[in-house]
Design goal:
about 20% strand, elongated, about 160 residues
Length: about 160
């Protein structure tokens, strides 16, 4: 009888611990999948870019600057890296060896806010310093013509 009670106690304790661990590992987080990575204007631009761009190039969307830019200042590396860590461009075009050749921003109404203007100015300076061209396309522009101009600049 005592062994049975001890056995039931151990089984109960193990069961309790397993349930507790399982509930902690499946805790609910406040995240959900967005309907799309791109907004409607970016999506329209992407489709046209994909249609016109030759096979020798790759298109990346919503890519962080830190994924394709490096900090040349080893003394202040962390400080400069942190300035670009969370910033991205709408599109990056690379050659067939994945070397970045051009970045593209599709700017909508949000880019008229003072904070965005400062951010855009900083991004422009970063690209100038790195020697990588940043093409800015305004929403409402003729995407086909803008992309034709971009493609001609790649040749």
């Amino acid at each position: 009888l005592i062994l049975s009670l001890i056995f039931l106690g151990v089984v109960g304790l193990v069961s309790f611990i397993v349930k507790k661990l399982r509930s902690e590992s499946t805790a609910q987080f406040p995240y959900k999948i967005r309907p799309s990575i791109l907004n409607k204007s970016e999506f329209a631009f992407f489709l046209e870019l994909q249609r016109q761009l030759s096979n020798g190039y790759q298109i990346f969307s919503k890519i962080r600057l830190i994924d394709f830019l490096d900090v040349a200042d080893s003394v202040h590396y962390v400080s400069w890296r942190n300035k670009i860590w969370a910033k991205h461009v709408d599109f990056l075009i690379s050659d067939s060896y994945f070397k970045p050749v051009l970045a593209i921003e599709v700017n909508g109404g949000s880019h008229f806010a003072e904070k965005r203007i400062d951010r855009d100015r900083f991004i422009k300076d970063v690209f100038g310093s790195a020697g990588l061209h940043l093409e800015v396309i305004e929403v409402g522009a003729n995407f086909s013509q803008a992309i034709d101009k971009i493609i001609k600049s790649l040749k």
